[in-house]
Specification:
Chain lengths: 296, 308
């Protein structure tokens, strides 16, 4: 009898501890969430506090200069547009084709597995490695030089996994019944793809592509390797021109000791973040419109 | 019989044409899919090729075991240990930040948060994931170092491994949080209900039922975040400084592997010199280490996965 009582006592003590933990856990977890959110807040506040005063249209209209009062990032702004635009021309067709093949066309299971494995690995390669390979293969190997096209191609392959995965997911959202209906009417795979799959999955593919583009716009490391740190005071006119991009211009300004350049860097960061925000908003808008249409 | 469509020559011709078209497109898509594989081969190939030039002049043993890295000075020494240790310290600090915070966020979102709280918190985490790394570098140099570390820790400079590690930690929180949350969220509701019906508390349900069931996904997210930390360049280049320093003291400024590659690229080292070749040797090492971790992560997901 005594043993039983003891057991009950021990149990109740453990129980009480658990009761406390049960209540405390969500509080501890909420603190962690708060830490993560305050990191975002601290980052944004630091940037806005330092850069808001420097924000002006000159930032994208003027060329970089040794005098911070009149410096801008026009060449970097245009360089980003050229590079990222061209990189989308590489990653989108390849990514959408791979996504279609993986989700619909391939009947060769082992090859599919193999491609998926490679895509996952490609996504895990550090971005600076893409820069090194671009430098070795495109800049010197193929003789493209430290040019826009070399940077764009590198970014395109780097963002390929993002586009591919979202395209494959998009194709999977097309209802089986629609596809089977078309096949039953005698449509070929090509016709099903052209008239059933693509119209319904294209908006979601675009969302993935926009996310890939945002990733490419913010990427500095591979471009740093390919283009080096440059002081460019003219607009790009050809894909074989040397170039710089916004994140690199920011890197350049951040590394300088003068406070004025730090403020310029902050202002440039605000511009970059606004651009990314706009891109993300458009991705969400496309997704929203698509969802509405799906109801039909 | 002549009315049978299968004997109609026009129909047969069209059918043939459609079949050929379909086959052509199939080949085209197959070719596009092969690009991912070709890219991996090209990456390995060009890194190995360029490194072999480097290893023609420097022995691999010296490279791996040497503790002095003075490639940009004379006399040149090629021991990669200082860079490797710097990368290890910064990534481990990053993991020490991101693992508890990221996991806690994931558990909170998946198990505790109401549907109304879930969405805004998730979008803030997504914002964190979408910020370019150069911005994080700026954040490390102008916020974390001067406002957080320098008042708290004596003898720490503007550039330090700690600042780099902490900032990379913030950068990879979203990776741990969102991938782990996916894993936990996809644990079937039946598991939870079954545990509750046996009299379990929420605490037991979360830590003894949901977490073990989602373990493969959680583990994979941590490894992926770790490899991301190792490959992070801009934060290390901005907040880590360009001093090669062989030490395990996180208060010191030290150059990581990625920051070294960035420095040589910034300096525009002439093509073909040993400085130029050395970045490929360092890159190859970084690639091999991250690939090894990635493959382990993929393997774990495959093997440990609980099938519901």
């Amino acid at each position: 009898m005594a043993g039983t009582v003891l057991e009950v006592k021990v149990l109740s003590r453990r129980d009480r501890l658990k009761k406390i933990l049960d209540i405390a856990t969500p509080v501890i977890l909420a603190i962690a969430v708060f830490i993560a959110i305050s990191a975002v807040a601290a980052l944004l506040i630091t940037v806005v506090y330092q850069g808001a005063g420097r924000l002006s249209l000159n930032l994208i209209l003027e060329y970089p200069s040794a005098n911070p009062a009149e410096a801008g990032m026009r060449s970097a702004f245009l360089g980003s547009f050229w590079t990222v635009g061209l990189s989308a021309l590489v990653s989108m067709p390849l990514g959408i084709a791979t996504g279609l093949y993986l989700s619909e066309w391939s009947s060769w299971r082992r090859f599919r597995r193999f491609v998926e494995f490679n895509i996952a690995n490609l996504a895990g390669v550090p971005s600076i490695i893409f820069g090194l390979v671009g430098l070795s293969l495109l800049t010197y190997g193929l003789g493209w030089g430290r040019s826009i096209i070399a940077g764009a191609f590198t970014l395109g392959i780097m963002t390929l996994p993002l586009v591919t995965v979202s395209a494959a997911e998009a194709v999977k959202t097309v209802p089986e019944a629609l596809k089977h209906g078309a096949y039953a009417l005698g449509a070929t795979k090509l016709q099903v793809t052209r008239y059933i799959i693509l119209p319904r999955s294209l908006p979601m593919m675009m969302t993935g592509a926009i996310l890939a583009i945002s990733r490419a716009i913010g990427e500095a490391a591979p471009i740093l390797i390919i283009s080096g740190l440059l002081f460019i005071r003219r607009d790009p006119v050809s894909i074989f021109d040397r170039f710089t991009v916004m994140p690199l211009q920011i890197f350049n300004w951040v590394s300088r000791p003068q406070v004025a350049f730090q403020e310029l860097a902050s202002a440039a960061i605000i511009v970059l973040l606004m651009l990314l925000l706009a891109l993300n908003a458009s991705a969400i808008a496309i997704r929203y419109r698509f969802q509405k249409r799906l109801v039909l | 019989m002549s009315s049978n469509i299968f004997f109609d020559p026009v129909f047969l011709k069209n059918l043939r044409r459609r079949q050929i078209k379909t086959t052509l497109v199939n080949i085209l898509l197959l070719a596009a899919s092969s690009i991912s594989f070709i890219s991996i081969v090209v990456i390995v190939g060009s890194l190995v090729l360029e490194s072999s030039i480097f290893f023609g002049q420097v022995s691999i043993t010296e490279f791996i075991t040497g503790t002095e890295w003075t490639v940009l000075f004379t006399p040149k020494k090629f021991g990669v240990q200082p860079l490797l240790v710097a990368t290890a310290i910064t990534s481990l600090i990053a993991l020490a930040v991101a693992m508890p915070v990221g996991l806690a966020v994931a558990i909170y979102l998946s198990e505790y948060a109401s549907n109304r709280a879930r969405k805004p918190i998730k979008s803030v985490i997504e914002v964190l994931a979408g910020i370019p790394t150069v911005v994080y570098g700026y954040f490390a140099l102008y916020f974390i170092s001067p406002n957080l570390l320098m008042p708290l820790i004596e003898g720490i400079g503007v550039h330090s491994a700690l600042a780099v590690g902490l900032t990379i930690g913030v950068l990879i929180i979203p990776i741990v949080a969102s991938l782990s949350e996916d894993a936990m969220y996809s644990v079937p509701e039946d598991f939870r209900q079954a545990a509750y019906s046996l009299g379990a508390r929420k605490l037991d349900v979360v830590f003894r039922v949901v977490l073990p069931a989602a373990l493969s996904g959680i583990f994979a997210s941590i490894i992926l975040a770790f490899t991301r930390a190792m490959g992070e360049t801009m934060i290390a280049a901005i907040a880590g400084g360009f001093r090669v320093y062989y030490s395990w003291d996180p208060r010191e400024a030290m150059q990581t592997m990625t920051a070294f590659i960035a420095q040589v690229a910034t300096g525009d080292a002439p093509h073909g010199t040993i400085e130029y070749q050395s970045i490929f040797a360092v890159g190859l090492l970084l690639f091999l280490v991250t690939m090894a971790f990635n493959i382990v992560a993929l393997y774990i997901v495959k093997r440990w996965q609980v099938r519901y």
